[in-house]
Amino acid sequence: MEAKVLYTQTFENTAIQSINYLSNWSARNDVIDRLIAVQQRFENNVMNNPSIYPPCYELTTIGVYDIRQFSFDGFKLLYRIGDKNTIYALVILSDKQNLQNALIDHCIMFK
């Protein structure tokens, strides 16, 4: 049975932050195209095998094992496998971003 992917508000917020930040160095449309390519590759890869990617290493160091990480083209996309073949895309960040700092910043900005 094929899975379905749902994108959280946090995913949308972090995608917008990535677009705004990376647009300082690249054309905005190029950044958007890169993010769309990451999203499409992610969906194509997890639809038939949601567990294809390993748990996020940064989170396993603090005891969180149910969040998985897909990396592609300089981005990391964190996701969780839910019930009934539902995949929740949680966050998308640059590979260079520190995950803990990014999540703290997100909590402060979107409280």
What does this 3D model show about the protein?
The chain has 111 residues and is an alpha+beta fold. The chain has a single domain (4-109), classed as 2-Layer Sandwich (YaeB-like fold), CATH 3.30.2310.20. Helix content is 43%, strand content 23%. It has four helices and four strands, in the order βαααβββα. It has a four-stranded mixed beta sheet. β2 (67-72) and β3 (75-81) form a beta hairpin. The chain is globular. The protein starts with a strand and ends with a helix. The mean pLDDT is 89.
Q: Features of this protein?
A:
single chain, about 110 residues, alpha+beta, YaeB-like fold, about 45% helix
